[in-house]
Design a protein that fits this description.
The complex is a heterodimer of chains A (about 180) and B (about 210). Chain A has about 180 residues and is mostly helical. Chain A is about 65% helix and about 0% strand. Chain A is globular, with a radius of gyration of 17 Å. Chain B has one domain. The chains are: A mainly alpha (about 180), B mainly alpha (about 210). The interface between A and B is large, with 59 and 31 residues.
């Protein structure tokens, strides 16, 4: 797929996702993770084991920060800026800036490659999830992992529906923060 | 966890995201913080008693509009830097232009003045308090804007913090201008600029420390 095609297809799916279309959003995240895997893999050839961790960290960050996407903006620019930010963070933590032998200003490359083979990350996201407080963990487990509705989750946990939504929102942010705390 | 499972989890039951959230949050933050700054000025210092007479003087408007212009440039820059992949554009230039204009004006006034008048133009009566007071008025604004940025995704945290500082410093100086009795351009060119610059530097340091995500 040409880069410009990928941009328009992904952008359309993402916009539907921003309007609450879970099916489109899932297709978007699936395609996005394949592009991220190829892109990050190319830059992190020194640390192949880190690639899947970083793909997951980027996905979580993009999900948590999706309200910062401006609908008129090229999606590539937004995705690339976040991927680059997270990658620099990792490289800084790993080996300092001298590890950055190639410039990371290749936004146009991001959607031109894709690697669809989903792998296990080294980082134990389930383990991190288990460290969240109940009011965040249970909503995420029921709604996000078991696929229950917010209403069903509210009934099962005795929480209000808005508390379930808040719990998911805060829990995913806390998860991202914990990832950052444990590189 | 496999990435496909994470994708499924993130998409499950996803909630719609409302548009224009960045602008709305910034607007709310300013609406909350600006009255606090004004209250500090009114209760702690008092509006200058001759405000009515001062309002016919061009320099009063320079003193009010110069920091407002810097603050506005800061607001635009915050708005842009809060979002990944949006360039700053001419944001930094827009904040510097009002300062350069003020410096130009002040140089004209300085060279046009008799040497014995110059020291009063530079030091005024309140130079010792000016920078601190501007920083004090800017405090609530800076805190509010940094809190908004904390919920956004600045990929250049120090720059985003500096933009928040320019916004807060400009706003704080404009609020302080309603109390401050000084009207000489050289005074503004040094002490007002120093106050705004201090808040901008504090914002940049705070941004580099607290805005990473």
């Amino acid at each position: 797929m040409r880069t410009s095609d990928a941009e328009s297809v992904l952008r359309a799916l993402f916009l539907q996702g921003l309007d609450g279309d879970a099916v489109a959003y899932r297709r978007f995240l699936g395609a996005l993770s394949a592009h991220l895997r190829a892109y990050l893999g190319k830059h992190l050839f020194g640390w192949p084991d880190e690639v899947e961790d970083l793909v997951q960290e980027c996905l979580l960050a993009m999900h948590n920060q999706r309200h910062t996407y401006q609908r008129t903006q090229p999606l590539t620019a937004w995705v690339h800026a976040i991927a680059r930010y997270k990658m620099i963070d990792l490289l800084r933590a790993k080996a300092g800036r001298e590890a950055l032998h190639d410039p990371l200003d290749d936004a146009q490359d991001l959607f031109s490659h894709s690697d669809t083979e989903s792998r296990d990350a080294l980082r134990d996201l389930d383990g991190l999830l288990a460290t969240l407080p109940e009011r965040q963990r249970l909503p995420i487990v029921h709604v996000k992992l078991e696929g229950l509705s917010v209403a069903e989750t509210a009934q099962r946990t005795g929480m209000s529906e808005s508390a379930v939504k808040v719990g998911i929102h805060r829990g995913l942010k806390a998860l991202a923060a914990r990832i950052k705390g444990k590189p | 966890m496999k990435t496909d499972d994470l994708v499924a989890a993130l998409a499950a039951g996803v909630e719609p995201v409302s548009q224009g959230l960045v602008s709305r949050r910034l607007g709310q933050a300013l609406l909350l913080a600006l009255p606090v700054s004004v209250a500090i000025m009114v209760l702690g210092y008092g509006v200058r008693p001759d405000l009515r007479e001062a309002m016919v003087l061009p320099m009063f408007w320079v003193k009010l509009l110069f920091p407002l212009a810097v603050g506005l440039a800061g607001l635009v820059a915050v708005h842009r830097l809060a979002r990944p992949g949006v360039d700053l554009g001419g944001g930094a230039v827009a904040a510097v232009v009002p300062v350069l204009l003020l410096w130009g004006l002040s140089a004209l006034v300085w060279w046009g003045a008799a040497p014995e008048e110059r020291s009063a133009m530079l030091w005024g009566q309140t130079w010792q308090a000016c920078v601190f007071n501007i920083a004090l008025m800017a405090g609530p604004l800076l805190l509010a804007v940094l809190l908004v940025l904390k919920g956004m995704a600045p990929t250049r945290p120090a720059w985003a913090g500096a933009a928040a500082g320019a916004l807060a410093g400009g706003g704080g100086a404009a609020v302080y201008a309603l109390h401050c009795p000084e009207l000489a351009a050289p005074f503004l060119a040094v002490w007002y600029v120093a106050g705004i610059a201090l808040v901008t530097a504090v914002g940049a340091l705070a941004g580099a420390r607290c805005l990473r995500w």
